[in-house]
């Protein structure tokens, strides 16, 4: 019983810890102005133009930390604070999202693979738990196995996301320095923002793998009993 309580505590605490790191780093460095005085929108536009991505637009979106790149519409969407702000955090986030646009332009293999996984990963996220629990409850192991397969696709999506996000951050650091949005003494702060954001993906992947492993072991145990 104690092991199960520890397990579920880890499932809840790890993502919360990662989220708190992101919020703390973002809150701190969103108050630190970057030395170039460029807004997040200007940073994004400067990097896009330097890489010949004139067809990618930069738009403002509501919310906090709602920044993302839309590969279908070819749009970088930055939250209002980052779009208009001139902070180190805003510049880092903007550069990171442009990193995804550059990946898209260059047909970065992990990004293409992740896009291909989206339909089945979405289906797996929605159906896997239902199929697994019904399968275990009714003793229908084939149904439970199907749920585990669906969950495996969702977990694979989480794992593939890791190199995509780390690569986007690596590109962001190179580009943000190249366009002069930050200076040498700001590199450390920029990396802290990007690393904290990466932690959320690592935590999500870790939790997803743990959950999959738990159900695989449960399935194996029930299968041996039969």
UniProtKB/TrEMBL annotation:
Keyword Membrane listed: yes
Record GO terms (molecular function): peptidase activity
GO biological process: proteolysis
Sorted UniProt keywords: Hydrolase, Membrane, Protease, Transmembrane, Transmembrane helix
Transmembrane intervals: 129-157, 198-222
The organism's place on the tree of life at top rank: Bacteria
Protein name: Zn-dependent protease
Lineage: Bacteria, Bacillati, Bacillota, Bacilli, Bacillales
């Amino acid at each position: 019983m104690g092991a199960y309580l520890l397990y579920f505590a880890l499932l809840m605490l790890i993502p919360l810890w990662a989220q708190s790191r992101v919020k703390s780093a973002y809150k701190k460095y969103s108050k630190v102005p970057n030395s170039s005085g460029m807004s997040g929108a200007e940073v994004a536009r400067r990097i896009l133009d330097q890489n010949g991505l004139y067809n990618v637009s930069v738009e403002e979106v509501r919310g906090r930390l709602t920044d993302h790149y839309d590969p279908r519409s070819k749009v970088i969407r930055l939250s209002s604070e980052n779009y208009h702000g001139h902070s180190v955090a805003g510049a880092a986030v903007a550069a990171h999202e442009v990193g995804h646009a550059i990946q898209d332009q260059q047909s970065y293999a992990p990004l293409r693979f992740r896009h291909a996984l989206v339909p089945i990963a979405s289906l797996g996220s929605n159906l896997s738990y239902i199929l697994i629990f019904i399968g275990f409850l009714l003793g229908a192991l084939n149904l439970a196995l199907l749920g585990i397969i669906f969950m495996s696709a969702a977990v694979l999506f989480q794992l593939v996301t890791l190199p995509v996000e780390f690569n986007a951050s690596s590109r962001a650091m190179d580009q943000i320095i190249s366009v002069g949005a930050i200076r040498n003494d700001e590199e450390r702060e920029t990396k802290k923002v990007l690393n904290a954001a990466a932690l959320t993906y690592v935590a999500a992947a870790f939790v997803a793998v743990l959950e999959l492993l738990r159900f695989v072991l449960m399935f194996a145990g029930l299968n041996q009993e039969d």
